[in-house]
Design goal:
- The complex is a heterodimer.
- Chain A is mainly α.
- Chain A contains 5 helices and no strands.
- The longest helix of chain A has 27 residues.
- Chain B is mainly α.
- Chain B contains 5 helices and no strands.
- In chain B, α2 runs antiparallel to α3, α2 packs antiparallel against α4 and α3 packs antiparallel against α5.
- Chain B is elongated, with a radius of gyration of 19 Å.
- The N terminus of chain B is likely disordered.
- The chains are: A mainly alpha, B mainly alpha.
- At the A-B interface, α1, α3 and α4 of A face α1, α3, α4 and α5 of B.
């Protein structure tokens, strides 16, 4: 018998992919002599995503659900051939995580789960802003008024 | 498994495609659960039958009013200095929020004494916490908007953190 979905499963799948993506980014970045700021952002993002991944996993399991497992590997959308490509890749991951988190806030039937998803959305939006700034964006171009909401 | 979405190997490649698809799916679901909000025990209140009032309309209206009041307060607080960053960006964000919440473009507030960066940061932090809490009581349609407002307030806190006090 299948366990009831909590609404967090899709977000956890996204977190698994993001953790993998940050791991890949960190691995290739060392060969590009990244700035200290980028190194801190990638390491910090990786650590933060692992923490929230574990929180989501525990929340799903506690609710009697089945936390989705990470895939063995994920295909990259384009080669991470230099530091700007790495930043672009990570920014895309964060933007998509924002969309998944916002959708989860609306779909989760438990208040505590909505709070978890809202926290993922906030953290991801801040990391995306940091990455855009590292890519040379100004404050006016680095932020979006409504992170995670399509077309905003 | 019912209710679960299979994740393909292409998630990162198309983390976009998949999450984008998931987003669309959730949006479609929102329309049919627009009046559902969670309670602490996890049971959702029953959706309203057609031809009856939406039981969450009043709750949503109250949460929306509170968000509008906070956005107006933050817009005014960031009104001076007029052109300096990140204040100009923060004003733009709050104007966009007000347009989303009210459907109208707000007037530019009159300039007044510049707040300290620390005061504005504290105000944004307070609003982020309020919207985060509010999203637990809102309908499935409004909750993502409130969570997104909270996220944007946290981004503003980050922008202000880079400023000298």
């Amino acid at each position: 018998m299948s366990s009831p979905p909590t609404g967090l499963e899709t977000l956890l799948s996204g977190e698994h992919a993001a953790v993998y993506g940050y791991g890949m980014a960190g691995a290739v970045l060392v060969s590009f002599s990244p700035s200290a700021g980028l190194t801190v952002a990638v390491r910090g993002g990786y650590d933060a995503l692992r923490v929230s991944r574990d929180q989501l996993t525990e929340a799903i399991a506690t609710a009697g659900g089945s936390p989705p497992e990470p895939l063995p590997a994920y295909a990259l959308p384009f080669p991470l051939s230099n530091a700007p490509a790495v930043v672009r890749f990570l920014t895309g991951l964060e933007d998509r995580l924002c969309v998944a988190a916002a959708s989860t806030v609306g779909a989760a039937p438990v208040a505590a789960h909505r709070l978890l998803a809202a926290d993922v959305l906030s953290a991801s939006a801040v990391r995306a802003t940091v990455l855009r700034t590292l890519a040379g964006a100004t404050p006016s171009t680095a932020v979006t008024p409504l992170p995670g909401l399509p077309g905003r | 498994m019912a209710g679960q979405i299979r994740v393909s190997r292409r998630f990162v490649a198309g983390a976009g495609g998949l999450v984008g698809l998931v987003g669309l799916t959730s949006i479609a679901c929102d329309a049919s659960h627009a009046s559902q909000a969670p309670d602490a025990s996890g049971s959702s209140r029953a959706p309203s039958a057609s031809l009856t009032a939406d039981p969450f309309a009043a709750v949503d209206a109250g949460l929306r009013r509170r968000a509008v009041a906070d956005e107006r307060r933050l817009l005014a607080a960031a009104a001076a200095p007029p052109a300096a960053e990140p204040f100009a960006t923060i004003r733009r964000l709050h104007r966009a929020h007000l347009r989303t919440l009210t459907g109208q473009l707000p007037a530019e507030p009159a300039g007044r004494a510049a707040p300290t960066v620390a005061a504005l940061q504290a105000a944004e932090q307070g609003v982020a916490a309020a919207r985060r809490t509010d999203c637990t009581g809102a309908s499935a349609t409004l909750a993502p908007v409130l969570a997104s407002l909270a996220a944007c307030a946290n981004v503003a806190v980050h922008l202000l953190a880079a400023q000298p006090s």
